[in-house]
Amino acid sequence: MENSFSCLHPNPGWGKSPKTPEDYYIGPSNKDIIGKHCILELYECDTGKLNDEAFIRTTLTTAAKSAGATLINLITHHFEPQGVTGLALLAESHISIHTWPESGYAAVDVFTCGDHTMPERACKFLGDELSAKKHSHRTLERETLSTLTNNLREPIIKN
């Protein structure tokens, strides 16, 4: 049986025949790394810090600086009875955090574009500042086709 996408999408403008997953594989020679996306799980953190919105704001700001990123905006929210969510909007992308003080847990994403930033430094800083006793860290490389990044890009000007 030929591999194809679900019958819910029977050839939605992809050409004459349905494509297989292999048709979308981008081999190593066809990609350029445009950024890194770090997924960080922090366990057994200081519960007081996880529930302190002002502390989370300061920590996100300093984490962005430690990564060499440019902070554009910062938004946080404290939940009742506990927990904080925060988003640091960066010129290079973002840092987000969601905390569960009752579990001593924080979920963090750090995504930065370009080669001048170091998202792993932000991850280490956040783990240290939240006093995590355990953590899990994965880094994904964000990729694009070489043919896209090698072309001259110009702004879109609308009349």
Question: Can you give a write-up of this model?
Answer:
The chain is 21% helix and 36% strand. The chain has 4 helices and 6 strands, in the order βααββββαβα. It is globular, with a radius of gyration of 20 Å. The model is unreliable at 1-17 (pLDDT under 50).
Q: Please describe the biggest sheet, giving its number of strands, its sense, and whether it closes into a barrel.
A: 6 strands, antiparallel
Quaternary state, please?
single chain
How much of the residues is beta strand, in percent? 35-45%
Number of strands: 6
Radius of gyration: 20 Å
Distance between the termini: 50 Å
Shape: globular
List the helices and strands and how they pair.
Layout: E1 31-43, H1 47-50, H2 53-66, E2 71-78, E3 84-90, E4 93-100, E5 105-113, H3 119-129, E6 134-145, H4 146-149
Brief descriptors of the model:
globular, 4 helices, six-stranded antiparallel β-sheet, alpha+beta, 159 residues
Give a brief outline of the structure.
This protein has 159 residues and is an alpha+beta fold. It is built from 4 helices and 6 strands; from the N terminus they run βααββββαβα. The N terminus is likely disordered.
